[in-house]
Amino acid sequence: MAKKKKKEKKFLFPNFGIRKEKEAFIENLTMLLSSGLNTTSTLRSIEEEIKSKRLKRIVRGISNDIEEGYPLWKSLKRSDIFDQSNISLIKVGEESGRLSENLKIVSEQTQKNKGFRSKLRSALMYPIFVLVLASVIGIGIAWFILPNLAKIFNNMDIELPVITQFMINLGVFLGDYGIYVVPAAVLIILTIFYFVFLHKKTKYIGQAITLSIPGIKKLLKELEIARFTYLLGILLDAGLPVSNALDSLISGSKNGLFRYQKFYKHLKINVENGLSFKKSIDSYNKVDRLFPRSVQQMIVAAEQSGKLSEILLKISKSYSEKVESTTKNLMTALEPIMLIIVWLAVVFIALSIILPIYSLVGNFN
Questions:
Q1: Which of 90, 196, 338, 353 lies 20 to 30 A from 162 at CA?
Q2: Interatomic CA distance for residues 226 and 171, integer angstroms
Q3: Choice between 174 and 267, residue whose per-residue pLDDT is larger
Q4: 6 lies in some domain
Q5: 208 and 263 share a domain?
Q6: pTM (2 decimals)?
Q7: What is the mean predicted confidence (pLDDT) over 278-298?
Q8: Whether 33 and 139 share a structural domain
């Protein structure tokens, strides 16, 4: 019997710095096991190719567990870097003799999740980059250029426009205290961002903010529907009972949207109590905010026809295409908005400098 071993140390961000290598690990594990190589030899071979010291240590621990009698799914679970949905698929594969087939599904699921993250990043990266760059340039001008202009304007006997006086006061303030104020402001902004968008107990606030932005709201909703239908469909198709599939779905959605997490828990409880998908969906308050009526009807019809996993995968495919289209449209819409924001910032700074020069020329005349 395998001895109880110390569990792998938990991290605040388990996948930080190893996500790409973890994805490669799953792909290599799938290919090597499919070729007929035994699990221990496969893990030893993969370990040699891994560059990350942390992931190398984790894979070595998994290999040691296998040698001591642990099943693969339990060893992967103890590593604390794999989603519960992946663990469930591997467990079912080991118990049913379909490990290589289910590992292929895990690999496909990993690539699918990677695609979802990539689409979300591509939609948000551009506006964030533009706003950060504009902020850095603005602070740089106010900190290093405006204090010098302030000295020039103060020696002139002219009345400065309001915006110029504001920018000069800001420049003088940053010139005197910028070395303390700017780092403190950046630290405060990062702290607020962490608690609003990343901390597990308060990130629902950030989600509520993003879900109030029309274009982002539509994208996040389509992403969640595509992910939900794909994950549940693939789990059911692999042979998991509905209750276990929903349990894995909940565990794999810990970093998802809180509104959907609550619905998944409601769905699981109702299904375990013997209710159908139709009654479970109908009994959830404001379910129409989460899923379009058409998606609800397709799920209900699929359950009644016994083709739930098949229809869920078709819905996922359809919504993945919608995500692609929404991402492109969102990028197209954001580009002129970002240009206008940058243009307004440039105009504001330019006017604050040019207006007093016009006043000076007027006094000379």
A1: 338
A2: 49
A3: 267
A4: no
A5: yes
A6: 0.73
A7: 90
A8: no
Tokens 């990266």, residue located: 125
Residue given tokens 């002219």 in the structure block: 158
Asked whether residue 40 carries a pLDDT value surpassing 70, the answer given is yes
pLDDT of residue 1: 41
pLDDT confidence tier of residue 353, bands split at 50, 70 and 90: confident
Q: Do 86 and 74 touch, CB atoms closer than 8 A?
A: no
CATH of the domain at 275: 1.20.81.30
Same structural domain, 256 and 334:
yes
Burial 332-356 (b: 16+ CB within 10 A, else e): eebeeebeeebeebeeebeebbeeb
The set of residues, in sequence order, having a beta carbon less than 8 Å from that of 343 and lying 6+ positions away, is none
- Are 337 and 234 part of one and the same domain? yes
3-state helix, strand, coil in the chain (%, to 5): 80, 0, 20
Tens of pLDDT, residue by residue over 225-235, are 988 898 888 88
The whole-angstrom separation of Cα 72 and Cα 39 is: 8
pLDDT digit string, tens, across residues 304-313: 888 999 999 9
SS3 string, 67-103, reads HCCCCHHHHHHHHCCCCHHHHHHHHHHHHHCCHHHHH
Structural domains in the chain (count): 2
Q: The tokens 């819409």 sit on which residue?
A: 333
Supply 263's token pair. Answer: 């619905």
Same domain, residue pair 233 and 133: yes
Instruction: Quote the domain boundaries for residue 354.
Output: 115-365
Q: Which tokens is 122 given?
A: 């591509």
CA 186, 191, 203: angle at the middle one, nearest 5? 140
Q: How far from 343 is each of 18, 136, 145, 166, 207, CA to CA, in Å?
A: 39, 15, 19, 19, 29
For residue 193, being part of any structural domain is answered with yes
Q: Residue 62 CB: number of other CB atoms within 10 A? A: 25
